[in-house]
């Protein structure tokens, strides 16, 4: 496939559970990111319509730290979502110890992610898949962008027909894994997992099978950051532990308040440079 709906596909940027992302040239010559989804033959009516409806959520969400959705639609056997192209890389690069972020910068970045979540939650959009791979950064321009808001409910739209589940198990809250009622507290749990991993280099719960992971998340209390890294400031460890509470009612309820706390902790830890890696 070299083009789709008038967009010229230049190179693949990566594949995920729901599709493949390309760097593409728009009809006006601008560079965009295009995510394409191959639909099964029996999905091409129902699923394409669901995709267009749900992807429109991404166009409603306007925030400087959210990847903008520019266009969406379907053509033949493909549905597609067009987004602004963000230079740089995602936060997965900063999980290994050799490239870990300074704590002040990490906390400031987390604050911006929480702020983006607050904007989404204000219009009743739950991301459902917050993880390092969905946070794009470009340090020279001080860019932080949360990606895939337009796909927040797409997994559910397709789930009954494709078996795809929205979310990545290692980052999912207990209620999400159990297919229970989700809300803003679900995204905040995933933010807690993301912060935990970027600080410690590992997930709070690690298991060899999905069943074992489900059991751990449902029944165990996550380890604290200080138990793994005593040098982590107590207030940082405490906030992440709150985000990782098994019971939604015990987690912080407001992403905007979490953003403020993370920013305050960043300043207490030393502010942080604007560029790294």
Chart the SSEs and their pairings.
Elements: E1 3-4, E2 7-16, E3 19-25, E4 31-38, H1 46-60, E5 69-75, E6 78-84, E7 89-90, H2 103-122, E8 135-138, E9 143-146, H3 154-162, H4 174-177, H5 184-200, H6 210-219, H7 225-228, H8 234-243, H9 255-269
Helix pairs in contact: 2-5, 2-9, 5-8
Short description:
With 277 residues, the chain is α+β, with helices and mostly antiparallel strands. Helix content is 38%, strand content 18%. Strand 5 (69-75) and strand 6 (78-84) form a beta hairpin.
Key features of this structure:
277 residues, alpha+beta, Phosphorylase Kinase, domain 1, Transferase(Phosphotransferase), domain 1, 2 domains, six-stranded antiparallel sheet, three-stranded antiparallel sheet, 9 helices, 9 strands, 18% strand, globular
What does this structure look like?
There is one protein chain. The chain is an alpha+beta fold. It has two domains: 3-84, Phosphorylase Kinase, domain 1; 89-148 and 167-269, Orthogonal Bundle (Transferase(Phosphotransferase), domain 1), CATH 1.10.510. Helices cover 38% and strands 18% of the residues. The chain has nine helices and nine strands. The chain has a six-stranded antiparallel β-sheet, covered by helices on one side. The protein has a three-stranded antiparallel β-sheet with strand order 7-8-9. It is globular. Residues 157-165 have low confidence and may be disordered.
Number of helices in the DSSP assignment:
9
What is the count of β-strands? 9
CATH topology of the largest domain: Transferase(Phosphotransferase), domain 1
* Lateral arrangement of strands in the main beta sheet: 1-2-3-4-6-5
Tell me, rounded to a whole number, the average pLDDT: 87
**Biggest sheet: strands, sense, closure?**
6 strands, antiparallel
Shape: globular
The CATH class of the largest domain: Mainly Alpha
Extract low-pLDDT stretches.
Answer: 157-165
Number of domains: 2
Tell me which CATH architecture of the largest domain applies here: Orthogonal Bundle
- End-to-end separation in angstroms reads 33 Å
Please identify which CATH superfamily of the largest domain we are dealing with.
Answer: Transferase(Phosphotransferase) domain 1
Whole-angstrom Rg: 19 Å
